[in-house]
Amino acid sequence: MQASRARLFKEYKEVQREKVADPDIQLVCDDTNIFKWTALIKGPSETPFEGGIFQLAFAVPEQYPLQPPQVRFLTKIFHPNVHFKTGEICLDILKNAWSPAWTLQSVCRAIIALMAHPEPDSPLNCDSG
Amino acid sequence: MVSDSITRASAHAVPNTGGRDLGKKKRARSAKLKQCKLDVRREQWLSQGAMKNKDCKEEQNSVVKAGKERSNNRSFGNLEMRPRGGQIDGSIHHHHHHHDSDVESNSPNSLTSSVLESNYSETTFTSSSSSSSGGCCSGNITEDEEGGGDDGCLDDWEAVADALAADEKPKNTCPESPPEHEPIAQTVFPQETAIGSDQVENLNPPYSRVIPKASGNGHAWRPDDAFRPQSLPNLANQLSLPNSNRKHYSCGGVPWAYNGVVPSSCPICYEDLDFTDTSFLPCLCGFRLCLFCHNRIMEEDGRCPGCRKPYEHEPVEAETSVHGGSLTFRLPRSCSMITRS
Question: Facing residues of A126 across strands?
Fold first, then answer.
């Protein structure tokens, strides 16, 4: 648990440092709980999501980074790999393909990539396929 | 040969008003840089071989004579140059004509002409490169013109050393050209310095002779030059590499695959790696992490964070330390990884 806290703190500092470098991602930590994060990501260009800003909620387990963070969309999004009601995301790196080398920032990038390139093979929202 | 050339470079690259001591200081670093730049230039010459311009050769005979006359006027550089003079023998013949046209017909700072002529001039140098490199072995010819050409060449190497070693302090003699372009331009055309000096003034300091023409004619490729081969290394990229390596943990993909680069901190816990950690390479993929994180991972699923393959060389140890079922627990995961990706 102490390790996850230390790591999240380092990530927080990293996010502050790289805030300008990646304007598509705004990663904010909860004021009182470092295990709760919120991210605002811009919809990738040349997709139906272009121009939109989507809010993500991160729930980081205490075993982080050995266990992946739980991420879901707070903003309603119509996407084959996102549950329309709960916002749950079907993304391999959030499940069995997670690696401790990933960070919350890189998870955001992966989600942006998923928005641009849906994977119809693992649908959570069959209607949007 | 290297030591010879360096000695002369230091003796003659410094302005004539003095500065021999300065030249001596620069010997050591110019030796290394010279070798590096030689390799780079050789690569450029080779890559440029396909673009030969035949027009250049027609003028050669007439211009060689002019070059001889001019370089005979140069007295100060010849005495020490003789033993190695043959090195530039071929290249001088190839270049006098071309350079003359440059200087006389174009203003040194005209950028429009420089792009066109970069193609033109580089092609001439492909022929001269072979002769100059071959001359390094023998170096017996002691004509005056070659001494002058050699002098110009060594001036260039000195300028290269200056530009590379002290790129943060801009040279006061050449404010108009960035340091990474200018040395390349000078190394391509050593002879132009000799000729240019003859036209302008014989006893000018080397820098003032070299730099305006090199920057103006632009014989080497600029980073945005259309003729620049893609395969050439970009100096700016090379310089920025160490910085990008520092951010290895924040990148997606497989950033740890940078060859031979040991991260300064553990990508998992972000703690600094100590000596034991840096010498610890648990996986063939090259992903490094601290022993503490490695131990924690072995207690959990035992897969390398870099390649997501199970750690191989410590399965027995992990089995004994963890529960008996961990092996059966681990195998299905690794199988699923393979089928998925």
Answer: none
Residue to substitute from B249, B287, B289, B336, interface A, most A β-carbons within 10 A: B249
The CATH class that applies to domain B242-336 reads: alpha beta
A119 touches chain B (CB under 8 A): no
pTM metric for this prediction: 0.42
Q: Are residues A106 and B251, on separate chains, in Cβ contact within 8 Å?
A: yes
Of the listed A29, A90, A108, A126, which one is catalytic? A90
Report the Cα A36 to chain-centroid distance in Å.
12
Cα-trace Rg, chain A: 14
Contact assignment for B293 to A105 by CB distance below 8 Å: no
A10 CB within 8 Å of a chain B CB:
yes
Chain A residues close to B305, C-beta within 8 Å: 99-101
* Rg, chain B, Cα only: 28
Q: Give yes or no: A90 in active site.
A: yes
- Percent of chain A that is helix, strand, coil (3-state, to 5): 25, 20, 55
Cβ contacts of B249 on chain A, cutoff 8 Å: 101, 103
ipTM over 0.90: no
Which residue, among B244, B247, B270, would best test binding to A if mutated, counting the most A CBs under 10 Å from its CB? B270
How many Cβ atoms from other residues are within 10 Å of residue A71's Cβ? Answer: 23
Q: How far apart are CA B128 and CA B149, in angstroms?
A: 13
User: What are the structural domain ranges in chain A?
Assistant: 1-116
* Domain extents in chain B: 2-240, 242-336
Helix residue ranges, H only, A1-126: 2-17, 104-116
Q: pLDDT tens digits for B41-65?
A: 777 776 665 454 444 444 444 444 4
At residue A112, does pLDDT exceed 90? yes
Give the C-alpha distances (Å, rounded to integers) separating A33 from A8, A13, A30, A39, A41.
11, 15, 5, 15, 21
Tell me the pLDDT band of B225, cut-offs 50, 70 and 90: low
The class that CATH gives domain A1-116 is alpha beta
